[in-house]
Amino acid sequence: QVQVVESGGGLVQPGGSLRLSCAASGSSIATMGWYRQAPGKQRELVARITSAHSTNYADSVKGRFTISRDNAKNTVYLQMNSLKPEDTAVYYCRVVTQEFARIYWGQGTQVTVSA
Fold first, then answer.
1. pLDDT in tens, 8-19
2. Are the C-beta atoms of 30 and 48 separated by less than 8 Å?
C-alpha cells in the first residue's frame, strides 16, 4: 500500500506564491503529478513529472508553475508563482507506481487565491 501525503496549501493574495509538497512511501514511483479541482468543475491536470524528470504542464499554468521531484525521497514539489484567483482549487497529488502502474491519490490540499 502506498501512502501519499500532501502539504503546503493555504490562502494567498493574487500575485503571490505557494509551494506544495507531496511525499509517497511504500513503493518505487514512476510518474508523480498534481491535479486540481475547483468547485463545480472536473478535476484537471496541473503538471506531472516522470522519474527521468520529463515534465508537462497545463497551458493555464505554463510559465508560472514549476514541478520538480526528489527521487531519493519520492517527493514531488509544485512551486506556484504569480497566482491568480482562478487557481483557487483543491490540489491533489497523484502517483503511479513502477510496479503494475497502480495509481494513488493524496487527500488534497486547499489553495485559495484571494485579496
1. 999 999 999 999
2. no
20, 68 Cβ separation under 8 angstroms: no
Per-residue cell: 32: 508523480
Query: With helix as H, strand as E and coil as C, how does 50-111 read?
Result: CCCCCEEECHHHCCCEEEEEEHHHCEEEEEECCCCHHHCEEEEEEEEECCCCCEEECCCEEE
What is the number of alpha carbons within 13 Å of residue 43 lying toward its C-beta? 11
- pLDDT, tens digit (0-9, with 9 covering 90-100), for 68-105: 999 999 999 999 999 999 999 999 999 999 999 999 99
- Grid coordinates belonging to 17: 506564491
